[in-house]
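Collaborator request, handled under Task 6.
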Amino acid sequence: QVQLVESGGGLLQPGGSLRLSCAASGFTFSNYAMRWYRQAPGKERELVARITSDGGSTNYVDSVKGRFTISRDNAKNTVYLQMNSLKPEDTAVYYCNTYYWSNDYWGQGTQVTVSS
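Structure tokens returned to the collaborator:
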């Protein structure tokens, strides 16, 4: 079955950097687009970044453009989110996502907290 397992979250100060990873299994990873979402306390889950199956195209929500970079390694079945210049408003649980056979699949999430 499809499994997505995020890692790499943590607590850090504003201006810091963090790289999230999402290890995928149970489907042909290289055939599917991947997404990172986040959900802050009391807010709806929002799409942060998306990458096409071959990694050739990426999209970002305006609030992270120029600071976050999504990438993937199809040989390792892993998608990454490099987060730089982190701000307190980036604090959220970050989720990996894919849409496979008409179903959305989610990981368990990883907490990112940015605080001084």
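The cover message to the collaborator said: "The mean pLDDT is 97. The CA atoms of residues 7 and 68 lie 16 Å apart. Please let us know whether this matches your experimental observations."
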